[in-house]
Known about the structure:
The structure holds two protein chains of two kinds. By secondary structure, chain A is mostly helical. Chain A contains 16 helices and three strands. In chain A, strands 1-2-3 form a three-stranded antiparallel beta sheet, covered by helices on one side. Chain A is globular, with a radius of gyration of 22 Å. Chain B is of the alpha+beta class. Chain B starts with a helix and ends with a helix. The A-B interface holds A 242, 245-247, 249, 286, 289-290, 297-298, 300-301, 303-308, 311, 317, 320, 334, 338-339, 342-343, 346, 349-350, 353-354, 357, 360-361, 366, 369-370, 373, 377, 380-381, 383-384, 387-388, 390-393 and B 1-9, 12-13, 15-16, 18-20, 22-28, 30-35, 37, 39-42, 45, 93-94, 121.
Amino acid sequence: MRLAVPTSRPLSRLTETRLLFWVAAITVTGFFTVALALGQGLDGNAFIVPTAFLVIAFVVHAALAMRGLRGDQIMLPVSLGLTGIGLIVIYRVTAGTDAASLLTLQLAWFVVAMAAFLLPLFVPRDLSLLSRYKYTWMTFGLLLLVATVVRGEEINGARIWFRLGPLSFTPWELVKIVLVVFLAAYLDEYREVIASRRGIWRVLPPPPYLVPIVAMAFAAMFILAFEKDIGATLVFFGIFLAMLYLGTGRATYVVAGVAILIPAAYVVYRLYAHVQLRVEMWQNPWQDALGSGYQILHGLFSLGNGGLLGAGLGAGDPQSIPVVWSDFVFAAFAEETGFIGALALLAMYLVLLYRGFSIAIAAPTTFLQLLAAGLTFVIGMQTLVIVAGNAKLIPLTGITLPFVAYGGSSLVTNFLSIGLLLRISAESRT
Amino acid sequence: MSANIRHLAATLSVLFLLVSLGVGYWQIVQGDELSSDPYNPRLYSEAAKRERGRIVDRDGVVLARTDASGDSFKRVYTGALYEPYVGYATLAFGAAGLEATYASSLIGEDPADPLGAIRRRYLGERAPPGSVRLALSAKLVDAAARSLGQRKGAVIALDPRTGEILASVSFPRYDPNPLTDASTQRAAFDALNNDQGKPLLDRAVMGLYPPGSTFKLVTGAAAVELGLDPNKKVPIDSPWKGDPSWGNYAVPSPINFHGEYDLRQAYAYSENIYFAMAAVNIVHGDRLADYAKRFMIGQSLGLDGPYAKTQLSNSGQLDRPTLVAATGFGQGELLISPLQMVLITSAVAENGVMPTPHYALDVRDGAGKVVRTIQPGPLAQPIRSDTAKLIAADMVYAVEGPNAFAYPAAISGIHVAGKTGTAENPQGSPHGWFVGFAPADNPTIAVAVVIENAQNGGLDAATVGGQVMRSWLGK
C-alpha cells in the first residue's frame, strides 16, 4: 500500500470545476427564486448564505486541485449540490419564521463538515490505521453511545442528543461510520472463516470468530434501542447485514438476520408506547389527524400538492408541516418541484451510490473495498428510510435525508464519508 | 467481492425504484384526493389571503361569508343555528361540515371547473371566489329550532322527490365564530371537544338511536311484500312469549292490549306484538336483514357531508328469534340516525323510491354563473310502489284515525302521514321519535324528529314534526 496520498499535476480537476458551476447556478437561482416568491428581498440571507456557501465550496475544491488529488470528481459536486438544495429548502421553510436562524446554523455546520471532508484527504499518511486500531474505534463508538444514555437529552421521545452550547449533536451519526470501519476491518481479517461452514452444525462459522462481530453489532443496537431511537437501530442493523453480505457473499446471513429482526421488532413494538404510536399513525394518520397523525398527514398533503410539475419554489405550503426542515425536507422539495423534482433529487443520490460502489470495486485492498461499499451503503439506506417514511411506505423515523436535511452531525459525518471515499478513490490504481 | 458489491448496488437500485413509485403514488395518483382532504390547510390558507366564497341558503340568505379587515380576511358565520353541518374552515384545525365538503369549490377550484383551477394555480389569477347555494331554507331551520327548543335532539326535513335537505337542526349546537379568530380559537376548540353535550356531533346525521316504533315502516313493508294480509285481524294477547325457548323474554304491548288488530290499526296504536309476530312468523330474520339493507341501513347514503353509518345489529345479522322479534318493533340492537329514518319515510312517500340526500343545490363561480348543479337522483328502490302506497295510507290513519298516537302532527286542510316512536334506551327515559310527510297525496316535505329522553315520548316529537311541516306548507 502507498504511504502517501497519490497526486498528479495541480489544476487537473476540471470536471469537478465544471460541475461546481452547475451547483452555483442551482443554488443562486434557487435562493433568488425563493426570495422573490416570498417577498423577502435579495438582501440578507438570500444573498449572504449562497455566496458564503459557494465561496467555501470553491475554496475546498481549489484545495483539492492545488494538492493535485487524483480520483473521483463527481461525488464532491453532487454532494455539494444536495447541500445547496438543502440550504434552499431550509431557507424556504424558515424565512420569516421563528426558525429562521436554522439557516445560518446549517451554514456554520457546513464549515465544520468541510473540515471533516478534508480530514481523511490531508491528514493520515496511510488509511490502514483505520483497520489496525479497529477495536479502539469500536470501543470509542460504544462509549459514545453509552455516554449519550447517561448524559444525553431526550427530544421527541428519543434520547440521542448531546448539547454543546447552542448546538445539539447526535453521537450515533459518527458511530455508524465507526461501525462500518470496524466491520470492514474485522471482515477483512476473518471473512474466509466467517464465510465457512465449519463451525456450529456445519452451517454457521466457528463461534470464536462469529461472536465478537455479532456481539459488537448487537451491543450497538441494544444501546440504541435503549435510547428509543428506532430509525438508528434499523440503520445499524442494515449496516450489519450489508457488511456481512459484502464480506461473505452468503445471502443466508441476510435472511437469518431478517428472521431475527421480525420477532425483535415485535418485542420493541410491545415495549415502547411511542413506537406503537408511530406504527398506528403510519397505518392510519387520519384517526388522529389533529394530534399524532398531524405531521405525517401534512407531509402527504405537501406531496399531493406537488403533482407532476410542482407548485413552484416558494409557491407551495410546506411550512405547514411541523419540523419540516429535519423530517420532511424531501416532501417540501417534492411539493415545490413536483414528482419531476423528486425524481431528479433521487437520481442525484443514485449518482452518489453509483460512484461510491464504483470506487469500492476499484479499491486496492479488500479492507478499502469493504469500507467504500459500506460508507456508500449508509448514504443509500438513510435516503431510502427517510424518503419511504415521507411517502408513508414505512413508519416515519428520525433519520435525516443526507446532505439536504437540517442537522449538523448528519452533515458532518456524511461529508466525512465522502472525504473517505475520495481518498479511497485516489488510492485506487485507475 | 466485486460481485457482492454489484448485488448490493442492484438491491439498493430496486429499492430506490420502489420508493420512487411510492412517492409518485401520492404525488400523481392521490394528488386530487389529498388536495380536497378536509384537514389539508392549503384549502384554508387562501382564506387569510383573499376572499373565500359564501355559503347561502336556497333563498340567498348568507350563512357563511368572508369579511375583509385591513389586509387579511376573516371567516364569519351567521350563527350557531346552522351548525354543526355548515361547519368551519380554519387554518389551525382544518375544516368540518360543508366547509370541508365544498372547500375546493369555495376557493374557486370546483372539480367541475378544472380550467379555473389551472388558471389560478399557474397564472396566479385572482378571480372572485365561487359560492355554494344550499337547499336549506333558513326560515324552516328557524322554525324547526324554535320548535325543538332547548331539548337535546335533532330535526331533519327533506324534499322526498329530490332528496334536497330543507332543514336540519341539532341541539346542542355551537357558535363557530370563535374558531376563526386567532385569539380565541384554541380555547374554543378545546372547550367544544370537551363539552359533555357534544355540540360537534350533528345528531341529525350522526346521532345513532334505537328507532323504536318508527322502524315498523320497514317491518310492515317487508311483511306485506312477503305475504302478510293487511286486512286480516290478528289476535293479540299481551305480553307475547313467542316460544318456550325465549325464556324470560316477552314482547310488551304499549297499552297492554288484548284483542285483534289489522295492519292499519297496528300502525295507529303502534302495537309491538303485531309487528314482532309479523317479523318472526312471516318475514324471518334473514329477509328482515335483507329489507333493512334495501332501505340502506348500514349502507352508504351518498350525502355531501359527514354522516354516520347505521346498524341493524351488532353482528349485522338477525340470527336469534328474540332478536328478530325485538328488531321487528324497532328495539333489539338497531342504531339508526334521523337521516336514515327520513330517507325510509321518503321512500314510503315517493312510491318506493328513496332519493339521495344532499345539502347543496349548486356551485357558482365568482360571476354568479352556475358551474355545477347537484342532482344526485334516486339512491335505491327498497319496496314496490303498491306497498309504499299501502303503508302511506296506513300512516295517514296513524295521524288521523280515532285516538291515533301521531295526532299532534295533523294539519287542518291537508292529509298528513306520520308515525311516532318511543325508543327504550340504556341512557334513561325513552327517546321520542316522529317521522312523517305531507301533503300525503303529493308530498313536498318529509321529516324525522328525535328528542332524547323526551317527557312524552313520540308525542313530543310528533308535535315538533307537525310544526315543521306546517311551517313549510305555509299553513
